[in-house]
Amino acid sequence: MEIRFDDRVAIVTGAGTGLGRSHALGLAARGAKLVINDLGAATDGSGRNESAAGAVVHEIRKAGGEAIAHGADVSNEAEVQDMVDKTLSEWGRVDIVVNNAGILRDKSFAKMTMADFRKVVDVHLIGSANVTHACWPVMREQKYGRVVLTSSGSGLYGNFGQSNYGAAKAAMVGLMNVLHLEGARDNIRVNTLAPTATTRMTEDLLPSEAAQLLAPETITPGLLFLVSENAPSRVILGAGGGCFAQTRIYETEGIELASGEITAEEVAASFAEISDPDEQAELHDAFSQTRKYARKAAEARGMN
Ligand code: NAD
Fold it and tell me: 17 and 8 in contact (C-beta within 8 Å)?
Protein backbone atom coordinates (compact mmCIF):
# COMPACT_ATOMS: atom_id res chain seq x y z
CA MET A 1 0.00 0.00 0.00
CA GLU A 2 1.26 3.46 -0.90
CA ILE A 3 2.61 5.42 2.06
CA ARG A 4 1.09 8.92 2.16
CA PHE A 5 1.18 11.81 4.62
CA ASP A 6 -1.77 13.92 3.40
CA ASP A 7 -3.08 16.19 6.18
CA ARG A 8 -0.13 15.26 8.39
CA VAL A 9 2.08 17.99 9.83
CA ALA A 10 5.77 17.19 10.27
CA ILE A 11 8.62 19.01 11.97
CA VAL A 12 12.07 18.05 10.70
CA THR A 13 15.00 19.52 12.61
CA GLY A 14 18.25 20.35 10.88
CA ALA A 15 16.37 20.18 7.58
CA GLY A 16 18.30 22.90 5.77
CA THR A 17 20.82 20.43 4.37
CA GLY A 18 21.96 16.79 4.32
CA LEU A 19 19.71 14.06 5.67
CA GLY A 20 17.15 16.46 7.15
CA ARG A 21 16.61 18.14 3.80
CA SER A 22 16.17 14.78 2.09
CA HIS A 23 13.68 13.59 4.76
CA ALA A 24 11.71 16.86 4.50
CA LEU A 25 11.51 16.65 0.70
CA GLY A 26 10.46 12.99 0.95
CA LEU A 27 7.66 13.80 3.39
CA ALA A 28 6.49 16.81 1.36
CA ALA A 29 6.44 14.77 -1.88
CA ARG A 30 3.97 12.41 -0.19
CA GLY A 31 1.64 15.13 1.01
CA ALA A 32 2.89 16.27 4.44
CA LYS A 33 2.95 19.90 5.53
CA LEU A 34 6.45 20.69 6.67
CA VAL A 35 8.17 22.78 9.30
CA ILE A 36 11.72 23.12 8.08
CA ASN A 37 13.83 23.79 11.13
CA ASP A 38 17.45 24.78 10.82
CA LEU A 39 19.77 26.91 12.89
CA GLY A 40 22.16 27.30 10.00
CA ALA A 41 25.14 26.22 12.08
CA ALA A 42 28.54 24.96 10.93
CA THR A 43 29.27 21.26 11.40
CA ASP A 44 30.80 22.02 14.81
CA GLY A 45 27.65 23.88 15.87
CA SER A 46 29.17 27.34 15.66
CA GLY A 47 27.45 30.26 13.92
CA ARG A 48 23.87 30.86 12.94
CA ASN A 49 22.20 31.63 9.62
CA GLU A 50 18.49 32.31 9.86
CA SER A 51 18.01 31.80 6.12
CA ALA A 52 19.30 28.18 6.13
CA ALA A 53 15.81 26.66 6.10
CA GLY A 54 14.44 29.07 3.48
CA ALA A 55 15.86 27.32 0.41
CA VAL A 56 14.20 24.02 1.34
CA VAL A 57 10.88 25.78 2.03
CA HIS A 58 11.19 27.38 -1.40
CA GLU A 59 11.92 24.00 -3.02
CA ILE A 60 8.85 22.41 -1.41
CA ARG A 61 6.54 25.31 -2.32
CA LYS A 62 7.81 25.30 -5.89
CA ALA A 63 6.82 21.65 -6.16
CA GLY A 64 3.32 22.54 -4.92
CA GLY A 65 3.78 21.57 -1.28
CA GLU A 66 3.28 23.47 1.97
CA ALA A 67 6.17 24.42 4.25
CA ILE A 68 7.27 27.04 6.75
CA ALA A 69 10.76 27.77 8.05
CA HIS A 70 11.88 28.10 11.65
CA GLY A 71 15.41 28.83 12.80
CA ALA A 72 15.10 27.50 16.38
CA ASP A 73 18.21 26.20 18.06
CA VAL A 74 16.92 22.79 19.17
CA SER A 75 18.99 22.99 22.35
CA ASN A 76 17.07 26.13 23.38
CA GLU A 77 13.77 25.18 25.00
CA ALA A 78 12.13 28.61 24.53
CA GLU A 79 13.00 28.75 20.83
CA VAL A 80 11.68 25.22 20.34
CA GLN A 81 8.43 26.12 22.11
CA ASP A 82 8.08 29.11 19.79
CA MET A 83 8.52 26.78 16.79
CA VAL A 84 5.84 24.39 18.04
CA ASP A 85 3.49 27.31 18.86
CA LYS A 86 3.93 28.66 15.32
CA THR A 87 3.30 25.19 13.87
CA LEU A 88 0.06 24.92 15.84
CA SER A 89 -1.12 28.39 14.85
CA GLU A 90 -0.38 27.57 11.18
CA TRP A 91 -1.85 24.07 10.98
CA GLY A 92 -3.32 23.18 14.40
CA ARG A 93 -1.52 19.87 14.85
CA VAL A 94 1.85 18.08 14.84
CA ASP A 95 1.82 14.47 13.70
CA ILE A 96 5.46 13.73 12.96
CA VAL A 97 8.69 14.81 14.59
CA VAL A 98 11.99 13.93 12.95
CA ASN A 99 14.81 14.77 15.35
CA ASN A 100 17.70 15.08 12.95
CA ALA A 101 19.69 18.24 13.80
CA GLY A 102 23.24 17.41 14.74
CA ILE A 103 26.82 18.55 15.09
CA LEU A 104 30.26 17.02 15.64
CA ARG A 105 33.12 18.02 17.93
CA ASP A 106 35.47 15.07 17.61
CA LYS A 107 38.54 14.59 19.79
CA SER A 108 39.94 11.66 21.72
CA PHE A 109 38.51 11.59 25.24
CA ALA A 110 41.93 12.54 26.65
CA LYS A 111 41.93 15.76 24.64
CA MET A 112 38.25 16.62 24.72
CA THR A 113 37.07 19.54 26.82
CA MET A 114 33.91 19.07 28.84
CA ALA A 115 32.52 22.13 27.06
CA ASP A 116 32.73 20.20 23.76
CA PHE A 117 31.27 17.11 25.41
CA ARG A 118 28.34 19.10 26.81
CA LYS A 119 27.69 21.00 23.56
CA VAL A 120 27.27 17.79 21.55
CA VAL A 121 25.00 16.25 24.19
CA ASP A 122 23.02 19.52 24.28
CA VAL A 123 22.29 19.52 20.55
CA HIS A 124 21.60 15.81 20.06
CA LEU A 125 20.07 14.62 23.31
CA ILE A 126 18.63 17.76 24.92
CA GLY A 127 17.65 19.07 21.47
CA SER A 128 15.71 15.89 20.64
CA ALA A 129 14.12 15.88 24.10
CA ASN A 130 13.15 19.59 23.79
CA VAL A 131 11.41 19.17 20.45
CA THR A 132 9.71 15.90 21.35
CA HIS A 133 8.66 17.23 24.78
CA ALA A 134 7.07 20.34 23.27
CA CYS A 135 5.07 18.18 20.81
CA TRP A 136 4.23 15.39 23.26
CA PRO A 137 1.07 16.91 24.82
CA VAL A 138 -0.21 17.74 21.33
CA MET A 139 0.34 14.16 20.15
CA ARG A 140 -1.26 12.72 23.28
CA GLU A 141 -4.30 14.92 22.81
CA GLN A 142 -4.56 13.95 19.10
CA LYS A 143 -4.02 10.28 19.94
CA TYR A 144 -1.53 10.21 17.09
CA GLY A 145 2.18 10.78 16.91
CA ARG A 146 5.22 9.48 15.09
CA VAL A 147 8.66 10.35 16.46
CA VAL A 148 12.05 9.49 15.05
CA LEU A 149 15.31 9.99 16.88
CA THR A 150 18.54 9.95 14.91
CA SER A 151 21.26 7.73 16.33
CA SER A 152 24.46 6.59 14.67
CA GLY A 153 26.75 3.60 14.38
CA SER A 154 29.01 5.63 16.64
CA GLY A 155 26.44 5.47 19.43
CA LEU A 156 25.46 1.85 18.81
CA TYR A 157 28.93 0.40 18.22
CA GLY A 158 31.51 3.11 19.10
CA ASN A 159 33.88 5.24 17.07
CA PHE A 160 37.32 6.48 18.11
CA GLY A 161 37.28 10.20 18.94
CA GLN A 162 33.52 10.49 19.43
CA SER A 163 32.87 9.94 23.14
CA ASN A 164 30.55 12.98 23.24
CA TYR A 165 28.74 12.09 20.03
CA GLY A 166 28.63 8.34 20.74
CA ALA A 167 27.19 8.93 24.22
CA ALA A 168 24.57 11.35 22.88
CA LYS A 169 23.65 9.00 20.03
CA ALA A 170 23.36 5.96 22.35
CA ALA A 171 21.09 8.08 24.55
CA MET A 172 18.60 8.19 21.66
CA VAL A 173 17.97 4.50 22.23
CA GLY A 174 17.31 5.08 25.94
CA LEU A 175 14.94 7.93 25.16
CA MET A 176 13.17 5.83 22.53
CA ASN A 177 12.72 2.85 24.86
CA VAL A 178 10.92 4.95 27.47
CA LEU A 179 8.90 7.11 25.07
CA HIS A 180 7.79 3.95 23.26
CA LEU A 181 6.31 2.65 26.53
CA GLU A 182 4.80 6.00 27.57
CA GLY A 183 3.39 6.83 24.13
CA ALA A 184 1.85 3.46 23.26
CA ARG A 185 -1.58 4.06 24.78
CA ASP A 186 -1.97 7.32 22.84
CA ASN A 187 -0.90 5.82 19.50
CA ILE A 188 2.48 7.55 19.61
CA ARG A 189 5.16 5.40 18.02
CA VAL A 190 8.83 6.11 18.56
CA ASN A 191 11.71 4.78 16.48
CA THR A 192 15.40 5.40 15.92
CA LEU A 193 17.20 5.82 12.62
CA ALA A 194 20.91 5.03 12.42
CA PRO A 195 22.01 6.43 9.05
CA THR A 196 25.27 6.43 7.14
CA ALA A 197 25.24 9.10 4.47
CA THR A 198 27.43 11.37 2.46
CA THR A 199 26.76 14.86 3.78
CA ARG A 200 28.97 17.79 4.70
CA MET A 201 29.36 16.01 8.09
CA THR A 202 31.04 12.96 6.57
CA GLU A 203 32.29 13.95 3.11
CA ASP A 204 35.91 14.19 4.27
CA LEU A 205 35.76 10.89 6.14
CA LEU A 206 34.35 8.55 3.50
CA PRO A 207 36.35 7.04 0.63
CA SER A 208 35.00 8.49 -2.65
CA GLU A 209 33.57 5.18 -4.01
CA ALA A 210 31.57 4.72 -0.79
CA ALA A 211 30.59 8.39 -0.74
CA GLN A 212 28.90 8.09 -4.13
CA LEU A 213 26.75 5.19 -2.94
CA LEU A 214 25.59 6.73 0.32
CA ALA A 215 23.40 9.63 -0.79
CA PRO A 216 20.87 10.83 1.85
CA GLU A 217 18.05 9.93 -0.57
CA THR A 218 18.93 6.24 -0.12
CA ILE A 219 18.08 6.54 3.59
CA THR A 220 14.90 8.63 3.49
CA PRO A 221 12.62 5.70 2.42
CA GLY A 222 13.49 4.06 5.76
CA LEU A 223 12.62 7.25 7.62
CA LEU A 224 9.31 7.50 5.77
CA PHE A 225 8.43 3.98 6.87
CA LEU A 226 9.32 4.78 10.51
CA VAL A 227 6.92 7.76 10.61
CA SER A 228 4.12 6.22 8.54
CA GLU A 229 0.60 5.33 9.66
CA ASN A 230 1.55 1.65 10.07
CA ALA A 231 4.98 2.33 11.54
CA PRO A 232 6.46 -0.11 14.01
CA SER A 233 7.59 1.23 17.37
CA ARG A 234 10.90 0.85 19.26
CA VAL A 235 12.80 -0.10 16.13
CA ILE A 236 16.43 0.89 15.54
CA LEU A 237 16.76 0.98 11.76
CA GLY A 238 20.21 1.15 10.23
CA ALA A 239 20.23 2.67 6.74
CA GLY A 240 22.72 3.61 4.04
CA GLY A 241 23.07 3.20 0.28
CA GLY A 242 19.74 1.36 0.10
CA CYS A 243 20.85 -1.15 2.74
CA PHE A 244 18.47 -1.46 5.72
CA ALA A 245 19.10 -3.48 8.87
CA GLN A 246 17.72 -3.61 12.37
CA THR A 247 19.81 -3.29 15.53
CA ARG A 248 18.32 -5.20 18.46
CA ILE A 249 19.25 -5.41 22.12
CA TYR A 250 19.21 -8.90 23.57
CA GLU A 251 20.01 -10.22 27.01
CA THR A 252 21.44 -13.69 27.44
CA GLU A 253 19.43 -16.09 29.58
CA GLY A 254 22.26 -15.93 32.12
CA ILE A 255 22.87 -18.11 35.13
CA GLU A 256 22.09 -18.01 38.81
CA LEU A 257 24.95 -18.41 41.30
CA ALA A 258 22.97 -19.87 44.15
CA SER A 259 25.61 -21.83 45.99
CA GLY A 260 25.99 -19.96 49.25
CA GLU A 261 28.21 -16.92 48.98
CA ILE A 262 28.19 -15.22 45.59
CA THR A 263 31.79 -14.33 44.73
CA ALA A 264 33.64 -12.40 42.03
CA GLU A 265 35.62 -15.59 41.32
CA GLU A 266 32.42 -17.49 40.57
CA VAL A 267 31.31 -14.73 38.19
CA ALA A 268 34.71 -14.90 36.46
CA ALA A 269 34.61 -18.68 36.23
CA SER A 270 31.07 -18.62 34.83
CA PHE A 271 31.54 -15.79 32.36
CA ALA A 272 31.34 -17.99 29.25
CA GLU A 273 28.05 -19.44 30.50
CA ILE A 274 26.75 -15.97 31.46
CA SER A 275 27.50 -14.82 27.90
CA ASP A 276 26.07 -17.87 26.12
CA PRO A 277 23.78 -16.45 23.39
CA ASP A 278 21.52 -19.55 23.28
CA GLU A 279 18.06 -18.48 24.46
CA GLN A 280 18.96 -14.78 24.48
CA ALA A 281 15.87 -12.58 24.36
CA GLU A 282 14.64 -9.01 24.03
CA LEU A 283 13.10 -7.69 27.23
CA HIS A 284 9.91 -5.63 27.26
CA ASP A 285 11.03 -3.17 29.94
CA ALA A 286 13.32 -2.78 32.96
CA PHE A 287 10.96 -4.68 35.27
CA SER A 288 11.03 -7.66 32.92
CA GLN A 289 14.70 -7.91 33.83
CA THR A 290 13.99 -7.51 37.55
CA ARG A 291 11.27 -10.17 37.41
CA LYS A 292 13.56 -12.54 35.49
CA TYR A 293 16.33 -12.26 38.10
CA ALA A 294 13.91 -12.60 41.00
CA ARG A 295 12.38 -15.69 39.37
CA LYS A 296 15.76 -17.31 38.69
CA ALA A 297 16.97 -16.53 42.20
CA ALA A 298 13.82 -18.01 43.72
CA GLU A 299 14.04 -21.15 41.52
CA ALA A 300 17.71 -21.69 42.38
CA ARG A 301 16.89 -21.51 46.07
CA GLY A 302 13.96 -23.87 45.73
CA MET A 303 11.49 -21.13 46.64
CA ASN A 304 9.09 -21.75 43.75
P1 NAD B 1 24.54 18.06 8.26
O2 NAD B 1 25.64 18.78 8.95
O3 NAD B 1 24.52 17.99 6.79
O4 NAD B 1 23.14 18.63 8.75
C5 NAD B 1 22.87 18.93 10.08
C6 NAD B 1 21.95 20.12 10.12
O7 NAD B 1 21.61 20.37 11.49
C8 NAD B 1 22.59 21.40 9.58
O9 NAD B 1 21.73 21.97 8.61
C10 NAD B 1 22.72 22.31 10.81
O11 NAD B 1 22.56 23.69 10.54
C12 NAD B 1 21.59 21.78 11.68
N13 NAD B 1 21.81 22.09 13.09
C14 NAD B 1 22.96 21.94 13.80
N15 NAD B 1 22.77 22.32 15.07
C16 NAD B 1 21.47 22.71 15.17
C17 NAD B 1 20.69 23.19 16.25
N18 NAD B 1 21.21 23.36 17.48
N19 NAD B 1 19.39 23.49 16.02
C20 NAD B 1 18.85 23.33 14.78
N21 NAD B 1 19.56 22.89 13.72
C22 NAD B 1 20.86 22.57 13.92
O23 NAD B 1 24.55 16.58 8.89
P24 NAD B 1 23.85 15.22 8.42
O25 NAD B 1 24.93 14.29 8.04
O26 NAD B 1 22.73 15.48 7.49
O27 NAD B 1 23.30 14.71 9.82
C28 NAD B 1 21.94 14.67 10.16
C29 NAD B 1 21.78 13.79 11.40
O30 NAD B 1 22.18 12.47 11.11
C31 NAD B 1 22.63 14.23 12.58
O32 NAD B 1 21.93 14.01 13.78
C33 NAD B 1 23.82 13.31 12.51
O34 NAD B 1 24.47 13.17 13.74
C35 NAD B 1 23.14 12.04 12.05
N36 NAD B 1 24.03 11.07 11.44
C37 NAD B 1 24.61 11.33 10.25
C38 NAD B 1 25.44 10.38 9.69
C39 NAD B 1 26.08 10.56 8.36
O40 NAD B 1 26.72 9.62 7.89
N41 NAD B 1 25.93 11.71 7.72
C42 NAD B 1 25.70 9.16 10.38
C43 NAD B 1 25.08 8.94 11.57
C44 NAD B 1 24.22 9.90 12.10
Answer: no
